[in-house]
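Task card 7
Instruction: Convert sequence to structure tokens.
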Amino acid sequence: MSARTLSAVIAMFGFAATVALAQSPNEIDTPGWKALRIRAMGFETRYPGTWHVRSVKGAGPETVLLDETPQAGKPHLAVQFWVQRHVNPRGLLVQHWYEDQLRRMNATSPPTANTSIGGRPTLRMETTGMLGRTFQFFTSLNKTDIFEITMTQPASQTQLNPTYRKLLSTVKFID
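Output:
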């Protein structure tokens, strides 16, 4: 097997594993979790019963925050859902939209990976900074709107937090 073929097989396996992780809600046990459905933002999900839902109002994108009560000595878990309306007027695939945004800002992209959330092609971006390790997921909500999910955890935690993985597996898009 050539090095090129081996690289392609490894890349496909990594992509398939990421997609399988994001698409296996039947294997995820979420007893005591609550349901959240926000028709105006076009999604529903489940979240730990001890977490809070906070709507964020302002002039920017539509957003809702799910988070747990902070506890001393324990990393604070929070998930933010965003809808950016009419930011994809040409109806590009999410990966092409993202590349177009980078070109317009003359910016380089941090590492990204293709995955799936709620059965939709999704771009996953991961960065590490002062706030920790941030995971951002971008997918098309419809032809012109982009749906984003943002999660932050300690920089030392290299794998996505198990609670975040469970929550992502329950995301569904609604009309």
